[in-house]
Amino acid sequence: MKIARGKKELEQIRKKILESALDIIVVKGLDGLTMRNLAKKTGMTAPNLYNYFSNKDEIYIHIVIRGFEMLYADLKAVCDTHEDKTRRLRAMIDTYMTFGINQPRYYDIMFTRPTPKYNDYIGTPLEKISEIEYKISMDIAALALETAKDVMGPTAEETLLTQRLVQIWSLMHGMITLNNSQVMGYVAQSPDSVYKKIIDEFIDSLAAKI
Length: 210
Known about the structure:
The protein is mostly helical. It folds into 2 domains: 7-53, Homeodomain-like (Arc Repressor Mutant, subunit A, Orthogonal Bundle); 60-207, Orthogonal Bundle (Tetracycline Repressor, domain 2), CATH 1.10.357. The protein is built from 10 helices and no strands. The longest helix is centred in the first third of the chain and has 26 residues, at 56-81. The termini are far apart. The mean pLDDT is 90.
């Protein structure tokens, strides 16, 4: 008689599937992710994969959800740790940078590759699953806006806050991309010190009177 798998074992199998799928996407792109390729990489059969995920798009969405969950958990942890508003903002920026550099596979699929987003799944059977990823990403944005507002002051206008958020996000994304592509090392002898100075100047500009 076949023994039913326990919850922990099922989660380990799902994790293995997601990690293998992420490896394939990083190398071959989302179009290169097929159930056949995934079955080969995981050592499972294609029909067995369907016991865990309905199709490759559901697998992709769960990868993105996992990435955003990790990033949110890291950001929320440092946000709750620091009472000083400026140190809190600095810690969140450093944490985002660390995530992008230490988790390049997730960062790439979350922010760099032109992969499907929530709007692409509206009206499809995967809309509700994709909505989970959308909500977490919006929670991250709200956390960032709230932290920036603490530094800028309660009178800061919403449009200016959004502008500042896009500005620092663009800075961080550019720095992470240059680091991960190993390009920055050809321009700056000490990339870390360059990054630190750029972020310090940005935070000082937020704290300055508007």
